[in-house]
From TrEMBL:
<dbReference type="InterPro" id="IPR050202">
    <property type="entry name" value="Cyt/Deoxycyt_deaminase"/>
</dbReference>
<keyword id="KW-0378">Hydrolase</keyword>
<dbReference type="InterPro" id="IPR002125">
    <property type="entry name" value="CMP_dCMP_dom"/>
</dbReference>
<protein>
    <submittedName>
        <fullName>Cytidine deaminase</fullName>
    </submittedName>
</protein>
<dbReference type="GO" id="GO:0004126">
    <property type="term" value="F:cytidine deaminase activity"/>
</dbReference>
<comment type="similarity">
    <text>Belongs to the cytidine and deoxycytidylate deaminase family.</text>
</comment>
<dbReference type="GO" id="GO:0042802">
    <property type="term" value="F:identical protein binding"/>
</dbReference>
<dbReference type="Pfam" id="PF00383">
    <property type="entry name" value="dCMP_cyt_deam_1"/>
</dbReference>
<keyword id="KW-0862">Zinc</keyword>
<dbReference type="GO" id="GO:0005829">
    <property type="term" value="C:cytosol"/>
</dbReference>
<dbReference type="InterPro" id="IPR016192">
    <property type="entry name" value="APOBEC/CMP_deaminase_Zn-bd"/>
</dbReference>
<dbReference type="GO" id="GO:0072527">
    <property type="term" value="P:pyrimidine-containing compound metabolic process"/>
</dbReference>
<dbReference type="GO" id="GO:0008270">
    <property type="term" value="F:zinc ion binding"/>
</dbReference>
<keyword id="KW-0479">Metal-binding</keyword>
<feature type="domain" description="CMP/dCMP-type deaminase">
    <location>
        <begin position="20"/>
        <end position="157"/>
    </location>
</feature>
<dbReference type="GO" id="GO:0055086">
    <property type="term" value="P:nucleobase-containing small molecule metabolic process"/>
</dbReference>
<dbReference type="InterPro" id="IPR016193">
    <property type="entry name" value="Cytidine_deaminase-like"/>
</dbReference>
Amino acid sequence: MKNLDIQINVKIYAFEELSIADRELIEAARQATFRSYAPYSHFSVGAAARLANGVVVSGCNQENAAYPSGLCAERTTLFYANAQYPDQPVCTLAIAARNEKGEFLAQPIPPCGACRQVMLETQTRYRKPLRVLLYGTENIYELQHVGLLLPLSFDASAMK
Ligand code: THU
């Protein structure tokens, strides 16, 4: 038996330590939480993507009475970005969330597994690292590429 130990690097920032561009992206993700449609979970998630051409697009979770028909903020945002700007790599994705009391989470919001897989596809598609900023009011996590969120990931290369 052998062990494979996988380490990931997460950079932790206070909001004031971030670049202006990253602060703006986080603010766009925060604002997107107010457009969330979450009548079932009352958990409002927002995401904002900065594309290589500088455009910022944002999205939020969209729930449905038939629960699995809804979609997370990250996928809403990435699919919109890819649909509107299919030739533009996504450089950075910021994610923010508010709880049922309407408060922003103190700790960084961890994206669900399905969203991590979609982030990986976006990164693979454009052959460019997709940075991820997970917002919390107390600190912010930066993952410099999606592989850090999804070790031992499945992508098209696994099918060769
Ligand atoms: N949600 C997201 O939008 N992103 C995530 O990464 C985690 C969960 C949404 C889905 C659902 O509308 C609500 O949060 C509760 O799961």
